Amino acid sequence: MCDQADDYKHAQTFISRHLSNDPDIDGIQVTLTYAQSLDGMISRQGQALALSSRASLLMTHRMRATHDAILVGIGTVLCDNPQLSARLLPTGELPCHPQPVVLDPMLRTPVDARLLTGPKDDAGLKMPWIVAGPNADPGRRRLLEQLGATVIMVNDVDDEGRPRLDKVVGELERRGVRTLMVEGGAQIIRAFLRSERMVHKLIITIAPVYIGSAEGVPAVDTVLPHIRPLAYEQFG
Predict the structure, then answer these.
(1) What is the spatial distance between Cα 140 and Cα 161, in angstroms, rounded to a whole number?
(2) Quick one: how many helices (H) and strands (E) in the chain?
(3) Is the pLDDT of residue 99 over 90?
Protein backbone atom coordinates (compact mmCIF):
# COMPACT_ATOMS: atom_id res chain seq x y z
CA MET A 1 0.00 0.00 0.00
CA CYS A 2 2.91 2.31 0.81
CA ASP A 3 4.44 1.74 -2.63
CA GLN A 4 1.12 2.52 -4.30
CA ALA A 5 0.75 5.71 -2.27
CA ASP A 6 4.27 6.69 -3.34
CA ASP A 7 3.35 6.03 -6.97
CA TYR A 8 0.28 8.28 -6.65
CA LYS A 9 2.40 11.04 -5.13
CA HIS A 10 5.12 10.70 -7.77
CA ALA A 11 2.55 10.92 -10.56
CA GLN A 12 0.96 13.98 -8.98
CA THR A 13 4.34 15.71 -8.62
CA PHE A 14 5.33 14.89 -12.19
CA ILE A 15 2.09 16.26 -13.63
CA SER A 16 2.22 19.48 -11.62
CA ARG A 17 5.85 20.05 -12.65
CA HIS A 18 5.59 19.34 -16.36
CA LEU A 19 1.97 19.77 -17.44
CA SER A 20 0.84 23.14 -16.20
CA ASN A 21 -1.13 25.04 -18.83
CA ASP A 22 0.73 27.70 -20.78
CA PRO A 23 -1.25 30.97 -20.83
CA ASP A 24 0.69 32.11 -23.92
CA ILE A 25 -0.74 29.32 -26.09
CA ASP A 26 -3.70 30.46 -28.14
CA GLY A 27 -6.23 27.66 -28.67
CA ILE A 28 -6.14 24.02 -27.65
CA GLN A 29 -3.07 22.83 -25.75
CA VAL A 30 -2.08 19.42 -27.13
CA THR A 31 -0.13 16.78 -25.21
CA LEU A 32 1.11 13.83 -27.27
CA THR A 33 1.96 10.76 -25.20
CA TYR A 34 2.74 7.13 -25.88
CA ALA A 35 4.69 4.14 -24.53
CA GLN A 36 7.44 2.47 -26.55
CA SER A 37 10.12 -0.20 -26.22
CA LEU A 38 13.82 0.61 -26.13
CA ASP A 39 13.95 0.10 -29.90
CA GLY A 40 11.04 2.49 -30.50
CA MET A 41 8.16 0.02 -31.00
CA ILE A 42 4.70 0.79 -29.67
CA SER A 43 2.98 -2.51 -30.58
CA ARG A 44 3.35 -5.80 -32.39
CA GLN A 45 1.76 -6.18 -35.80
CA GLY A 46 -2.00 -6.29 -35.17
CA GLN A 47 -1.55 -6.98 -31.44
CA ALA A 48 -1.78 -4.98 -28.26
CA LEU A 49 1.49 -4.71 -26.34
CA ALA A 50 1.69 -3.94 -22.62
CA LEU A 51 4.64 -1.59 -22.12
CA SER A 52 3.64 0.48 -19.09
CA SER A 53 4.36 -0.41 -15.47
CA ARG A 54 1.79 0.13 -12.72
CA ALA A 55 3.54 3.36 -11.74
CA SER A 56 3.63 4.76 -15.28
CA LEU A 57 -0.02 3.75 -15.80
CA LEU A 58 -0.95 5.76 -12.72
CA MET A 59 0.92 8.72 -14.20
CA THR A 60 -0.96 8.29 -17.49
CA HIS A 61 -4.35 8.15 -15.76
CA ARG A 62 -3.56 11.23 -13.70
CA MET A 63 -2.46 12.97 -16.89
CA ARG A 64 -5.74 11.98 -18.54
CA ALA A 65 -7.66 13.57 -15.68
CA THR A 66 -5.95 16.90 -16.33
CA HIS A 67 -7.15 17.04 -19.95
CA ASP A 68 -10.59 17.81 -21.31
CA ALA A 69 -10.41 15.13 -24.02
CA ILE A 70 -8.35 12.12 -25.16
CA LEU A 71 -7.90 11.34 -28.86
CA VAL A 72 -7.01 8.00 -30.42
CA GLY A 73 -7.33 6.54 -33.91
CA ILE A 74 -9.65 3.75 -34.96
CA GLY A 75 -6.69 1.35 -35.09
CA THR A 76 -6.22 1.71 -31.33
CA VAL A 77 -9.93 1.05 -30.74
CA LEU A 78 -9.88 -2.09 -32.90
CA CYS A 79 -6.63 -3.43 -31.41
CA ASP A 80 -6.81 -2.41 -27.74
CA ASN A 81 -10.53 -1.77 -27.11
CA PRO A 82 -9.70 0.97 -24.56
CA GLN A 83 -12.01 2.86 -22.20
CA LEU A 84 -9.83 6.01 -22.20
CA SER A 85 -10.80 6.69 -18.59
CA ALA A 86 -8.88 7.81 -15.51
CA ARG A 87 -10.19 4.94 -13.40
CA LEU A 88 -6.88 4.27 -11.60
CA LEU A 89 -7.03 7.53 -9.69
CA PRO A 90 -7.89 7.28 -5.98
CA THR A 91 -11.51 7.76 -5.01
CA GLY A 92 -12.26 11.44 -4.51
CA GLU A 93 -9.40 12.69 -6.69
CA LEU A 94 -11.18 12.45 -10.03
CA PRO A 95 -13.29 15.52 -10.89
CA CYS A 96 -14.58 13.82 -14.05
CA HIS A 97 -13.42 11.46 -16.76
CA PRO A 98 -12.10 13.07 -19.95
CA GLN A 99 -14.07 13.10 -23.18
CA PRO A 100 -13.02 10.21 -25.47
CA VAL A 101 -12.48 11.16 -29.12
CA VAL A 102 -11.92 8.62 -31.90
CA LEU A 103 -10.59 9.58 -35.32
CA ASP A 104 -12.55 7.07 -37.42
CA PRO A 105 -12.90 8.24 -41.05
CA MET A 106 -15.06 5.30 -42.19
CA LEU A 107 -16.96 4.73 -38.90
CA ARG A 108 -15.55 1.28 -38.18
CA THR A 109 -15.97 1.59 -34.40
CA PRO A 110 -17.54 -1.73 -33.24
CA VAL A 111 -20.96 -1.53 -31.63
CA ASP A 112 -19.63 -3.54 -28.66
CA ALA A 113 -16.55 -1.34 -28.12
CA ARG A 114 -15.94 -0.53 -24.47
CA LEU A 115 -16.16 3.15 -25.34
CA LEU A 116 -19.83 2.55 -26.14
CA THR A 117 -20.72 -0.07 -23.52
CA GLY A 118 -18.73 1.30 -20.56
CA PRO A 119 -20.82 4.45 -19.94
CA LYS A 120 -23.94 2.29 -19.60
CA ASP A 121 -22.37 0.60 -16.56
CA ASP A 122 -20.56 3.65 -15.16
CA ALA A 123 -22.39 6.96 -15.28
CA GLY A 124 -19.10 8.81 -14.77
CA LEU A 125 -17.81 7.75 -18.18
CA LYS A 126 -18.66 9.80 -21.25
CA MET A 127 -19.94 8.50 -24.58
CA PRO A 128 -17.34 8.99 -27.33
CA TRP A 129 -17.14 11.65 -29.98
CA ILE A 130 -16.32 9.89 -33.24
CA VAL A 131 -14.75 12.00 -35.99
CA ALA A 132 -15.65 10.76 -39.48
CA GLY A 133 -14.85 11.78 -43.04
CA PRO A 134 -17.20 12.52 -45.94
CA ASN A 135 -17.11 8.91 -47.26
CA ALA A 136 -18.44 7.36 -44.05
CA ASP A 137 -21.55 5.17 -44.35
CA PRO A 138 -24.67 7.15 -43.27
CA GLY A 139 -26.16 3.93 -41.92
CA ARG A 140 -23.20 3.39 -39.61
CA ARG A 141 -23.52 6.98 -38.46
CA ARG A 142 -27.17 6.49 -37.52
CA LEU A 143 -26.36 3.25 -35.71
CA LEU A 144 -23.52 4.74 -33.65
CA GLU A 145 -25.62 7.79 -32.79
CA GLN A 146 -28.47 5.52 -31.68
CA LEU A 147 -26.00 3.82 -29.32
CA GLY A 148 -25.15 7.20 -27.79
CA ALA A 149 -22.04 8.32 -29.66
CA THR A 150 -21.70 11.80 -31.12
CA VAL A 151 -20.51 11.61 -34.73
CA ILE A 152 -18.58 14.69 -35.89
CA MET A 153 -18.28 15.06 -39.65
CA VAL A 154 -15.11 16.71 -40.99
CA ASN A 155 -15.20 17.03 -44.77
CA ASP A 156 -11.73 18.51 -45.25
CA VAL A 157 -9.51 15.42 -45.68
CA ASP A 158 -5.94 14.59 -46.69
CA ASP A 159 -4.85 12.52 -49.70
CA GLU A 160 -5.69 9.29 -47.85
CA GLY A 161 -9.20 10.39 -46.94
CA ARG A 162 -8.46 11.15 -43.28
CA PRO A 163 -9.85 14.33 -41.72
CA ARG A 164 -7.13 16.97 -41.51
CA LEU A 165 -5.81 17.29 -37.98
CA ASP A 166 -6.02 21.09 -37.88
CA LYS A 167 -9.72 20.86 -38.80
CA VAL A 168 -10.30 18.13 -36.19
CA VAL A 169 -8.58 20.16 -33.47
CA GLY A 170 -10.52 23.26 -34.53
CA GLU A 171 -13.80 21.37 -34.28
CA LEU A 172 -12.91 20.11 -30.80
CA GLU A 173 -12.06 23.65 -29.73
CA ARG A 174 -15.42 24.82 -31.04
CA ARG A 175 -17.04 22.24 -28.77
CA GLY A 176 -15.27 23.58 -25.70
CA VAL A 177 -12.11 21.45 -25.51
CA ARG A 178 -9.16 23.45 -24.22
CA THR A 179 -6.69 20.66 -23.40
CA LEU A 180 -6.28 17.58 -25.60
CA MET A 181 -4.28 14.43 -24.86
CA VAL A 182 -3.33 12.35 -27.92
CA GLU A 183 -2.47 8.70 -27.23
CA GLY A 184 -2.06 7.01 -30.62
CA GLY A 185 -1.79 4.73 -32.46
CA ALA A 186 1.15 4.93 -34.82
CA GLN A 187 -0.55 6.81 -37.67
CA ILE A 188 -1.97 9.40 -35.27
CA ILE A 189 1.36 9.84 -33.48
CA ARG A 190 3.20 10.32 -36.78
CA ALA A 191 0.60 12.72 -38.14
CA PHE A 192 0.76 14.96 -35.07
CA LEU A 193 4.58 14.92 -35.04
CA ARG A 194 4.64 15.96 -38.70
CA SER A 195 2.14 18.75 -38.12
CA GLU A 196 3.32 22.33 -37.81
CA ARG A 197 3.45 23.45 -34.18
CA MET A 198 0.39 21.43 -33.20
CA VAL A 199 1.99 19.51 -30.30
CA HIS A 200 2.90 21.57 -27.24
CA LYS A 201 4.12 18.76 -24.94
CA LEU A 202 5.50 15.30 -25.77
CA ILE A 203 5.67 12.60 -23.09
CA ILE A 204 7.19 9.23 -24.02
CA THR A 205 7.23 6.25 -21.65
CA ILE A 206 10.16 3.97 -22.52
CA ALA A 207 9.93 0.36 -21.31
CA PRO A 208 13.16 -1.65 -20.76
CA VAL A 209 12.36 -4.26 -23.43
CA TYR A 210 13.25 -4.93 -27.06
CA ILE A 211 10.59 -5.95 -29.60
CA GLY A 212 12.50 -6.06 -32.87
CA SER A 213 11.73 -4.56 -36.25
CA ALA A 214 10.49 -7.86 -37.71
CA GLU A 215 7.31 -7.86 -35.64
CA GLY A 216 7.18 -4.41 -34.06
CA VAL A 217 5.35 -1.27 -35.16
CA PRO A 218 7.56 1.82 -34.74
CA ALA A 219 6.15 4.95 -33.16
CA VAL A 220 7.78 7.27 -35.69
CA ASP A 221 8.88 6.98 -39.30
CA THR A 222 10.86 10.19 -39.44
CA VAL A 223 13.36 12.16 -37.40
CA LEU A 224 11.80 13.66 -34.29
CA PRO A 225 11.85 17.43 -34.00
CA HIS A 226 14.26 18.93 -31.49
CA ILE A 227 12.65 18.91 -28.06
CA ARG A 228 13.42 21.80 -25.72
CA PRO A 229 13.37 21.81 -22.77
CA LEU A 230 13.94 18.08 -22.18
CA ALA A 231 13.44 16.23 -18.88
CA TYR A 232 13.12 12.64 -17.78
CA GLU A 233 12.10 10.66 -14.69
CA GLN A 234 11.96 6.99 -13.72
CA PHE A 235 8.63 5.40 -12.79
CA GLY A 236 8.53 2.00 -11.15
Answers:
(1) 17
(2) 7, 9
(3) yes
